[in-house]
């Protein structure tokens, strides 16, 4: 039965992602907003809901390690797995936006803030409030810095359609429900399948929880690439990682202060830093291709190898 649930849930993920991408295009066209900004805000926040729910519940239950690990693991998977696969399968990516010049700070600053806040071993409620303010500043930055022309970005069929707020909201809601619900069922059924094959609980927790909460970003980004929207794909990941640090950790720390132990998590923290710096290198050199993909997938392989060994 778990195999059936797994397949149906994956189908829900794909169809939900398709709804999200198409309705996001409609909203972008209606308000003359670039795909990157839509991907970094509406899509990114929606696909970050599983991480926020998981970390808030972990914080409420007094499981700080799980709340923080969920964010760190999701950031690693978003960069190495999601962008690694996006760059691998994309035939050609030429974003109009100068991602390094305009967005590189948002790749690294939220992470630096995290290390500064956690240097005393805790992310408290004041830290959480400051993180939420950082999220607000990111949104303001996006909408005041984005002046890209949408010409050539939008599906010609969408241009002919009349914009309908009610229809778009309903379809977006259905898309997020299918995507997030599908991810939840994929994790649950995948966990049960893993237990049947004798996979340890520790491996299940490390990979299926972090990877599972990153599935919405993965599927939405791949669907966006398939529809010829590379900027929405990259915007989704950068925006999701900003949301993971600021919105997810911020909300979780407001529920209950989070303790952080750098000694026991030093390798995972190191991988997160290496992945983020590698992404900066890719943005600076515009390596939106198989070369960039190989860099990211090698880091992912090292992360998996260390976790399993």
Which regions have little confidence, pLDDT < 50, spanning 5+ residues? 149-154
Biggest sheet strand order reads 1-2
Domain count, please report it.
1
| H/E topology pattern | HHHHHEHHHHHEHH
Task: Provide structural commentary.
The protein is an all-alpha fold and 309 residues long. It has a single domain, classed as NCX, central ion-binding region (A middle domain of Talin 1, Up-down Bundle). It is 81% helix and 1% strand. It has twelve helices and two strands, in the order H-H-H-H-H-E-H-H-H-H-H-E-H-H. Strands 1-2 form a two-stranded antiparallel sheet. The longest helix is centred in the middle third of the chain and has 32 residues. The chain starts with a helix and ends with a helix.
List the main descriptive attributes of the protein structure presented here.
309 residues; mainly alpha; A middle domain of Talin 1; two-stranded antiparallel ribbon; 12 helices
